[in-house]
Design goal:
Length: about 130
């Protein structure tokens, strides 16, 4: 299988995300741009453990699962030519008003949090 990730310029799928629901039950997958997987080489945008990533990092999704969840940017080489694919990666400020204010404040706090604090508080299995 060809690894199209080798040519990636937008490693959104290597950044942690939070799934939240609005009051109507709609699901949002928010990319946390300040919180990147520790196995991503920030200079080359390549995964340092690509072949074993699904075994080593329990939060890593297979490409099939990332596509199913619409969690890849439309520029991703895996979905770029798929006319039916729709990216569903909103930003915190794009959330509808029916997200509770306490959730919105929590999300904004997470975005401002240092990566170390985020890893210690939210992802203790990885650190």
């Amino acid at each position: 299988m060809i690894n199209l990730c080798e040519e990636c310029k937008y490693p959104y799928c290597c950044q942690y995300s939070i799934i939240i629901h609005d009051n109507d039950g709609k699901i949002y997958n928010l990319i946390l741009k300040n919180h990147t997987c520790k196995y991503l080489d920030k200079d080359t945008h390549k995964c340092l453990i690509y072949e074993n990533r699904l075994k080593v990092n329990p939060y890593c999704l297979s490409m099939k699962e990332a596509i199913r969840q619409h969690g890849l940017p439309k520029e991703c080489l895996y979905v770029k030519d798929n006319k039916e694919y729709q990216e569903k990666i909103p930003k915190i400020h794009d959330l509808p008003n029916n997200i509770l204010d306490v959730d919105r404040r929590m999300l904004m706090r997470i975005e401002r949090m240092s990566h170390r604090e985020f890893m210690e508080r939210f992802l203790p299995l990885i650190l």
